[in-house]
């Protein structure tokens, strides 16, 4: 096995800010060790331990003797985490650490380490900073211990069994079959290991009032309308959570800066089915243009008049696509099939798309000025928030059909309502809504609608509103389940972090 010891030391939390020479000095005192599953790195109470370890690959579990003599697992340690720091204080080892699988590590003899510290005060200073930072995350361990000792339904693992816990929030009926199948497949793959995965499902969304449900869990799994803001993430980290697994592509519900500061890994499902969303956007455009909902309602009530049902041929029309990523590209291909001319806008245009037939990148203003239909496929970012507002609407072709299957926040709803009232906007197909969090994915049919803007939107005959269902196909749900479990595997079972995670969100 080849590795750069100094670089590995630089990646641990123990030695922040050391220069290359200082890292080389520490690296020169390390040796490589390999432990089989079940072998101990150190034992609680040992007065004569001499070594510290930094994990390279694999993982180790930290156990402490409980009041009844049982061994209580506190946390698992993974790549770049260290073991045996109490040696620095000359204290007995404070926990037993056992390799939970074949694990490789760098070994650092404490006597030799103390000699380097004496010769290089900068290393001692760096170590102090690293330990001070770690003191804060030690609360994590305490919270875990408290949750384990107070939770009556949490079984105490044996010293060889490693249980990874996942809390799934905002879990909905429609995803039960596919997600539970993915979890069952994943657990089956663990059958011949000494590890297991326990999943708790919660219908409630993750927010400050529900975050305690994740106590004792290694990961939370959330969806588009959960609230993973800085306060919630801080509580998750304190409770021992290390991974936030998003069951979706968009990541506007999570404060990524706060997650990074708290060392929380964030992984997503980047593309569950771009076809599902693109096909739904086309469905909205067709349904709106040909007034399908109105027509269907009419014939059901015996009214066969065609008045007001006139649409237009899509063939030969100009369609504007904002955001030409995975979904935007699928949408373009379908519209090419209708014989449309495509105008594209993207902050990062695709060289590939630029070569497609009948497809041209233009400025936003040009797109607005020429497109009969505009479909939004850009992410919600500070720079895209309310990109569809009174000013941009004024630049559009009169009677434009506007389709939004991306994020509600791209559109200023009040400005859209004005545009619809004036006829400047000829129709809107909206699968997403800026304040959908309070409404979507739940049955509110017994409640009074308190959101006036939403209520107004639904009164227009030329507005089609759906409740964030563009992704909802069997294929997409299967992919969400399998990719989410793969993200869990990579982070919690293989110890991958940051860019090592295939679907990391940074
Ligand atoms: P993607 O990352 O593949 O594509 C997004 C594109 O937007 C990229 O090409 C990117 O360069 C572009 N972009 C970034 N900033 C931009 C800006 N300021 N202006 C214009 N373009 C910009 O993502 P995707 O898989 O195609 O998904 C697009 C969006 O669809 C997601 O952000 C998500 O919000 C939404 N979505 C909705 C549903 C649903 O069910 N309604 C499901 C999945 C995704």
Structure description:
This protein is an alpha/beta fold and 506 residues long. 34% of the residues lie in helices and 19% in strands. The protein has helices spanning 5-11, 20-27, 110-119, 121-150, 176-189, 230-238, 256-261, 274-289, 292-300, 326-337, 351-354, 364-370, 390-394, 413-422, 452-457, 474-493; strands spanning 30-35, 40-42, 51-57, 60-65, 71-77, 82-83, 96-99, 103-109, 162-168, 195-201, 219-222, 243-246, 265-267, 318-322, 341-345, 359-361, 373-376, 400-404, 425-430, 463-465. A 7-stranded parallel beta sheet has the order 16-15-14-17-18-19-20, with helices on both faces. A 5-stranded parallel beta sheet has the order 10-9-11-12-13. It has a 4-stranded antiparallel beta sheet with strand order 1-8-3-6. Helix 1 packs across helix 2 (20-27). It binds nicotinamide-adenine-dinucleotide. Nicotinamide-adenine-dinucleotide (NAD) binds next to helix 8 and helix 10.
Summary tags:
5-stranded parallel sheet; 20 strands; elongated
Bound compounds, please? nicotinamide-adenine-dinucleotide
How many strand segments?
20
Mean pLDDT: 89
Largest sheet: 7 strands, parallel
Q: How large is the share of residues in beta strands?
A: 15-25%
Spatial arrangement of strands, main beta sheet: 16-15-14-17-18-19-20
Question: In DSSP terms, counting alpha (H) and pi (I) runs of 4 or more, how many helices?
Answer: 16
Task: Tell me the structural class.
Answer: alpha/beta
Oligomeric form: single chain
Helix-residue proportion:
25-40%
CA radius of gyration? 28 Å
- Cα shape: elongated
Uncertain stretches of 5 or more adjacent residues:
140-157
Instruction: Kindly report how far apart the N and C termini lie.
Output: 29 Å
């Amino acid at each position: 096995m080849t590795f750069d010891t100094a670089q590995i030391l630089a990646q641990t939390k123990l030695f922040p800010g050391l220069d290359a020479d200082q890292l080389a000095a520490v690296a020169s005192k390390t040796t490589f060790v390999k432990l089989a599953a079940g072998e101990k790195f150190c034992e609680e109470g040992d007065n004569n331990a001499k070594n510290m370890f930094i994990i390279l690959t694999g993982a180790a579990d930290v156990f402490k003797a409980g009041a009844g003599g049982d061994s209580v697992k506190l946390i698992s340690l993974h790549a770049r985490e260290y073991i045996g720091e109490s040696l620095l204080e000359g204290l007995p080892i404070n926990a037993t650490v056992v390799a939970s699988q074949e694990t490789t590590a760098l070994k650092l003899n404490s006597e030799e380490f103390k000699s380097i510290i004496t010769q290089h005060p900068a290393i001692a200073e760096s170590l102090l900073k690293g330990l001070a930072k770690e003191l804060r995350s030690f609360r994590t361990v305490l919270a875990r211990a408290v949750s384990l000792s107070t939770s009556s339904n949490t079984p105490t693992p044996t010293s060889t069994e490693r249980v990874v816990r996942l809390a799934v929030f905002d879990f909905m009926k429609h995803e039960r079959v596919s997600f539970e199948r993915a979890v069952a497949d994943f657990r089956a793959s663990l059958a011949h290991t000494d590890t297991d995965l326990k999943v708790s499902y919660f219908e409630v969304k993750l927010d400050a009032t529900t975050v305690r449900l994740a106590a004792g869990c290694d990961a939370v799994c959330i969806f588009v309308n959960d609230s993973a803001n800085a306060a919630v993430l801080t509580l998750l980290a304190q409770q021992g959570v290390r991974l936030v697994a998003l069951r979706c592509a968009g990541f506007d519900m999570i404060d990524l800066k706060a997650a990074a500061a708290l060392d929380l890994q964030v992984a997503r499902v980047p593309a569950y089915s771009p076809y599902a969303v693109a096909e739904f956007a086309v469905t909205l455009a067709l349904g709106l243009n040909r007034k399908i909902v109105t027509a269907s309602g009419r014939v059901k009530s015996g009214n066969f008049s065609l008045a007001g049902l006139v649409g237009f041929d899509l063939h030969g029309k100009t369609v504007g696509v904002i955001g030409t990523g995975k979904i935007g590209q699928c949408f373009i291909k379908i519209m090419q099939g209708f014989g449309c001319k495509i105008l594209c806008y993207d902050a990062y245009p695709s060289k590939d798309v630029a070569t497609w037939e009948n497809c041209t990148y233009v400025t936003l203003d040009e797109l607005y000025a020429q497109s009969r239909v505009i479909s939004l496929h850009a992410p919600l970012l500070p720079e895209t928030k309310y990109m569809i507002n009174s000013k941009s609407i004024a630049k559009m072709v009169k009677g434009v059909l506007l389709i939004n299957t991306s994020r509600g926040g791209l559109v200023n709803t009040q400005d859209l309502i004005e545009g619809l009232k004036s006829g400047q906007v000829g129709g809107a197909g909206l699968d997403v809504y800026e304040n959908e969090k309070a409404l979507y994915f739940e049955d509110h049919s017994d409640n009074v609608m308190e959101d006036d803007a939403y209520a107004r939107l639904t009164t227009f005959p030329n507005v089609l509103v759906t409740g964030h269902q563009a992704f909802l196909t069997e294929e997409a749900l299967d992919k969400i389940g399998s990719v989410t479990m793969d993200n869990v595997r990579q982070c919690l079972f293989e110890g991958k972090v940051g860019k090592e995670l295939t679907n990391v969100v940074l």
